[in-house]
Amino acid sequence: VKNVFRKTGQDKKHVIFLLSEAELLDDNYLEDLSQMLTNADIPGLYTTEELRSIRDYIGESLRKEVQLSSLNAAAGQQQLSELQEETYIKFTKNISDHLHVMLCFSPVGSKFRNYCRDYPAILNATSCIWFLGWPENALMEVAKKFVKDSGIPEKQQEPIASIISYMHMSASETIAKMKDERKRIFYLTPTHYMDLMKSYAKIKEEKEKELELYKAKLINGLAKFKETEKKADVMSTETTIKKQKNMEQVKISGDFAQQLEAEYNKIAKQEAHIKARAAIRDKQKEEAETLLRAADEELARAEPKLEEAKKALEELKAGDLAEVRNYTTPPNEVKSVLEAVMVIVGKAPTWTSAKKAMTDAHFIKDIREYDVKKLSDSQLKDLESHTKKQDFKITKITSISYACLLYTSDAADERSSVDLGGRRIITKKQQ
Questions:
Q1: Backbone phi, then psi, for 301, in 5-degree steps?
Q2: Alpha carbon separation from 367 to 89, 358, 364, 372 (Å, rounded)
Q3: Which of 40, 128, 131, 231 could anchor a disulfide with 92, C-beta 3.0 to 4.6 Å?
Q4: Which residues is 18 bridged to in the sheet?
């Protein structure tokens, strides 16, 4: 305000001071505005030094005017003295002549009515200019300028401008209809029209940002999709390779399964064979145990007779052998006994071999100390064949030769059976 007052009061420049209703934030502004319109001054606006500066400036200007306009020195000095007293009045007069205050108020609501009632200078010191609604062509031109500045494509500018102007015109027609029918007054000013376009611009900007965001997301999504597609191709290739490998593994597994099945069948056959052999073995074992028990029983029965045979051998003397050797042609009973003895000692079962053996001085000792466990299977079989002969009987030999009687004991026959049975058991175990 000071700056405006200096330009108009000192420099005498024409200035328009435009003040809108939105700028009146406090009622104190309206008080100052009322003083400005009434007196072209605001009390307390300047300090003492600022007032002195204004008076000096105005006084200097007045002196120059007086010197130029005065015809004689006495008249000019008197006029200058009078004007110096009215310097500040001159300053406010210049403000009143050169300052043009323009107030922009909306008739909507009760604010404008209250301002006029509380501060009459707003109406008394001003001239009211009522701005009527804009015509359709003006609305259209403003809308075209707006859409052009908004960066809208050229093909879309005129249709959008037509829609904006049509919305404002239709709203104005509706307001007039409401006033006639309902007696209710609504105000639709060009400010609303500008607000409509600003709202459109704001929404357009928001939507453009939203679309840009969606566009960025879409581009990013497409990039991700392409990247995923490439990865899917790679994975598909890898899957195909793995599938081929798996097929090969399945084939190998099938072959291996067939091999395992063959091995299983083979093992099953072997197991069945082993079970059969185990059954045979158990049966043989049972038979062997039976034979062993029988052999033990026979051995138990033969042991006393064996002891008697050993005692009989202890009574055998060289003279007894000499008696037998003297036979040129021995009886069959004697011959059978001595052939059996030759089988035991491992010599030829003949009379000649027996006669020769009996000439040995150690023959009796060898017979007494002979280990019957050393008899082989073949010896036992030969011995069994000799002991089963009809001539190999104690009752027959007793009347022929005492020596042969000592050789021939039922114990020998019993021992032969026991050893033969036991030897057969061992042979079956080895098999």
A1: -75, -30
A2: 183, 11, 5, 10
A3: 40
A4: 102
